[in-house]
Amino acid sequence: MNTDEAMVYYSKFKANPRSASAPGLIEILQRTITFMQRREAGVKSGYSGNLPEKIAVSKQ
Fold this sequence. Notes:
Number of domains: 1
Mean pLDDT: 76
Helix content: over 70%
Radius of gyration: 14 Å
Number of helices: 3
Number of strands: 0
Strand content: under 5%
Shape: elongated
Distance between the termini: 24 Å
Structural class: mainly alpha
Low-confidence stretches: none
């Protein structure tokens, strides 16, 4: 789970004219990268509990 590599992939995918035919996929990639960034921040802060649950609760 490398956030920097994911952002590069996302930028290339979004810039590709053919990706316009897959708007749902672009949205999924955006949500995945956001999740990865939040997870990375949680790990760096030393949080060791159920991180996906904490992220889901913080979005509400």
